[in-house]
Amino acid sequence: MMKTLVSAAAVLIPVLLWADMLAQARPPIIDMHLHARRADYLGPDPPPMCTPFERMPRWDPSHPIATGLTFGDRPPCETPIPAATTDERVMRETLAVMEKRNIIGMVSGEPGLIATWKTVLTDRMIAGLDLSLGGPSSAAHRRAFSVDDVRRLLTSDGFKVLGEVMAQYDGVAPDDNRLEPYWALAEELDVPVGIHLGPGGPAEFYLGTKGYRARASSALNVEEVLIRHPRLRLYVMHAGYPLVDDLRALLFSHPQVYVDISSIVYTEPRPAFYRFLQQIVEAGYADRVMFGSDQMIWPGIIEPAIRVIEDAPFLSESQKRDIFYNNAARFLRLTTEQIARHHAM
To answer: What are the structural domains, with CATH classification, of the chain?
Structure first.
């Protein structure tokens, strides 16, 4: 009997050690900007995505923009990443990357699709509610919710984050009176809010989003909101790129604000993105920067986005861990039990 126990231990101990080493080799990542999207979110034949774009598009307005928007005489990257072809593949392929890299995602979308994703992603998912004000400048897939709708979804339907707030696409400033009841509600409920301030797609206005304005990307656009609602937990999605001076002014004056680096982390040429992020870090705000991918229908972009941070030569290992996990855990006010569970996944 003793010999059997010793033999079993000899087998079990290396297995447990290997499992522990494996867990240590993939510490958790919180992706503060994932989306539950349908495969036709951008139309029936969506384009592939570059990680990064090596050059940005140009347009000769003597041609229709749908055919005249060009990247010149060669593709904008050597290995574009294709979009997932079905709703199921968008979800399953996103989950596969999340499991591989031990990602917990703030996944936002409309309630029906979020409910489907929650049954599959389970503990890897923090549900966020996309918010648009609708109207003629808003894309058809962006649904408007009343304040009463939002209250119900945040209090009884399992949504933990109000965001992505996409008012910039609607041509609505953050301090517009139409948004005021939503800010008041988020402050009342102590629900984190993520607002889009930064780039949309290239040529966003000309391709149909008539309310979008590049000047509205400034992070300073949320300053009056913060003054009216000082207990609001708010993070600036896309970090107000590329207006880094405005962002630094906001972070200095409003120390409760965090940012995510979604989309720009993988779409922008690395030298440009690194200069932007390095200015934020060197100014003393490395502990308020959170990782985000902005994965919509291209699950293959998540790992390249992670590698951009892993490879950043100006970040220490502790700063990388802060960006990947610790800053978001603090912003979301995760409990010690939740943090322990993430590290054990």
So the answer is: 27-39+90-344 (3.20.20.140)
